[in-house]
Structure formats: structure tokens, C-alpha cells
Specification:
Blueprint (H helix, E strand, L loop, with lengths): L1 E6 L11 H10 L4 E7 L3 H9 L6 E8 L6 E4 L10 H10 L3 E4 L10 H6 L2 E6 L4 H14 L2 E5 L12 E3 L5 H7 L3 E3 L6 H13 L6 H14 L1
Parallel strand pairs: 1-2, 2-3, 5-6, 6-7
Antiparallel strand pairs: 1-8, 3-4, 4-5, 8-9
């Protein structure tokens, strides 16, 4: 099974990708499934799951939860996560029978050891994160003996499936906990990160920051 384990829909504050388009793109890219991990809600994941009529295609209900120690992703969730404290979020995920993932662990800050130790999976390659941060994530996973995954962290349908994990089991939860057989990785163009920040500013009505992000996006486009 080829899966992309970190994808956003329009239910996130920094994406405009409708659940319908996300599902269609994932299938067109040849994926066998995906995890929908919108910021602080499972509503987008539930809609993608409910729209899926293909029993051979897996939709994992997930959420990227904001905490005081950075984001924590829950996979295979049954309900919304209530807490915003990192260790409590991880405990809630496990209480639901879910799998806890630490995404982009060196994006913006270094992870706390007790948080990194408490999760099940560690994202060692994020398509929107710098190579240096990804290298640090690889070293962290090696040091802690954590199962490593990669993801597109797609905020646009064009990025879905650019990173994927290969699992050797029809039970994705069990296969993930055992470890992926292969990680296929590819970086997203940097201007897309700025584009998602413009979307975030617009949806959150922080219009004053849009020119800053727009200037940065143009510079990144010119730089290639």
C-alpha cells in the first residue's frame, strides 16, 4: 500500500482544497490511501472518508493538533481531541486506539524529549520543511529508535502523493507501527509555503500580513 500520511483540506485555515478534490487527486496520483490531518479538527477527514466509495482505498481520519510543544498528529481517530497540552493530546490519541505522530519536529522549534518519546511515529521527511530540519529529524528518530515516516504535508491538491510510504500489509495501522518498507520523498516548491500562508492570513482575517507573504512568494518564484 502507498499512503500519504499528512494531507490538508479546506477545513484547515491554510488550505483551500475541498475534500472532494483531495480524494480525487489522491486516487489519480495512484495512492492506495491517505491520512487527512486538518488543523485542530477531524471534520475534513470525516467528509473525505464519507465521500469515499472505493472499499480498496483507505481514508485515515486524522488531526494535526496545536499544542504548547508544537503540533501533534493523531491518526485513526474516532472523535475530536479536546486537550491542547502535548502529552495529554498523545494520551487522548492512544485512548481512542489511535497512532501518535510527531510531524516536522524541528520546524520552528526543537522537540521536547518527553514528547518525542511518547509518540509512535516520527516524520523524518516533510516536503515543506528545510533539508537541515529533515536531517535533524532523521537523527532524532535514530537516537530514540522511533518508526520513521515521510509525508507531503499537502496544502494544495497538486502536492498530494509527492511523498508516500510503502506498507506491506492491508492493515495500515499495524503496518505503520511495524515500520514502512520504503519512503518516497520529494520537496514541495518553497513558494507554495508562502501561498498557504497567504490563504491562512486571508481566512483568519489577518489581511495586514498578506503583502509580506506575497512578496516572499514572488521572491521564491523568481529564485526557482
Amino acid at each position: 500500500m502507498f499512503l500519504d500520511l499528512h494531507v490538508h483540506t479546506s477545513f484547515s485555515f491554510d488550505s483551500l482544497s475541498s475534500p472532494e478534490k483531495v480524494l480525487r487527486a489522491a486516487k489519480q496520483k495512484g495512492l492506495d490511501g491517505l491520512a487527512v490531518t486538518d488543523h485542530d479538527t477531524i471534520e475534513g477527514a470525516l467528509e473525505v472518508r464519507d465521500r469515499n466509495r472505493d472499499h480498496d482505498f483507505v481514508v485515515i481520519v486524522g488531526c494535526e493538533k496545536s499544542t504548547e510543544a508544537g503540533d501533534i498528529i493523531g491518526l485513526f481517530l474516532q472523535k475530536e481531541i479536546r486537550s491542547y497540552k502535548a502529552l495529554e493530546v498523545i494520551a487522548e490519541i492512544h485512548e481512542q486506539g489511535g497512532v501518535a505522530l510527531l510531524p516536522h519536529p524541528f520546524h520552528g522549534r526543537s522537540p521536547r524529549d518527553e514528547v518525542a518519546n511518547a509518540v509512535d511515529l516520527l516524520e523524518v521527511f516533510n516536503a515543506r520543511t528545510s533539508p537541515e530540519s529533515n536531517r535533524k529529524a532523521v537523527a532524532l528518530a535514530d537516537r530514540l529508535g522511533k518508526t520513521a515516516i515521510c509525508s507531503s504535508d499537502a496544502h494544495f491538491v497538486s502536492d498530494i502523493g509527492t511523498c508516500r510510504v510503502l506498507l506491506e500489509d492491508t492493515d495500515p495501522r499495524a503496518a505503520l507501527l511495524r515500520g514502512a518498507r520504503r519512503l518516497d520523498t520529494c520537496y514541495s516548491p518553497r513558494y507554495k509555503t508562502s501561498a498557504s500562508q497567504i490563504i491562512k492570513a486571508w481566512k483568519c482575517r489577518k489581511y495586514g500580513s498578506i503583502p509580506v507573504h506575497l512578496t516572499r512568494m514572488v521572491k521564491r518564484l523568481v529564485a526557482g
